[in-house]
Design brief:
Helix content: 55-70%
Number of helices: 8
Largest sheet: 2 strands, parallel
Structural class: mainly alpha
Distance between the termini: 27 Å
Length: about 160
């Protein structure tokens, strides 16, 4: 069992899909429109797909799979709004500052993969923060000066 490591075995899924009459949902390595279209062409009998953690790396993935072209400025603004909403939801549900910070740091592990490499140094400051105040300060600085996103975070 590979769990979250490695890559999806599309050929094994194709073999199973050809032998099973039940509806199947494909889950694995759909990280951009090209990968989605390739899997969809390989599995014409499958009409449901799970995107999983790639949506944290690229919150715009579902729209991009449908062909949407989202410019960098819009991505920046929408990511800031998404993060603010996410933080507010957790802040309302997780009362202890350290626990809140730890939850949010887990998200930054995935968010980091969606930004250009020069952002890694700034993101490390966020991930190494020891207090919620420092974490929030580093996050605010990063979001105000957001570096460009990678078009395909898994191909750098």
């Amino acid at each position: 069992v590979q769990m979250y490591g490695g890559y999806a075995d599309v050929e094994a899924f194709v073999g199973a899909a050809n032998q099973i009459s039940h509806k199947m949902v494909y889950n694995g390595d759909i990280n951009n429109r090209e990968a989605f279209l390739a899997v969809k062409a390989r599995l014409p009998q499958v009409d449901s797909f799970m995107l999983g953690r790639y949506l944290l790396v690229n919150p715009f993935l579902a729209e991009e799979l449908r062909g949407a072209q989202i410019n960098a400025a819009e991505k920046e603004a929408r990511f800031v709004a998404f993060y603010a909403d996410l933080f507010a939801i957790y802040q309302a549900r997780v009362p202890h500052p350290k626990h809140l910070m730890d939850r949010m740091k887990a998200y930054w592990h995935y968010f980091a993969a969606g930004f250009e490499p020069q952002a890694r140094k700034q993101i490390k400051k966020i991930q190494r923060a020891q207090t919620l105040e420092a974490f929030s300060r580093y996050t605010d600085i990063f979001l105000q000066n957001q570096p460009p996103r990678i078009n395909d975070p898994w191909m750098e």
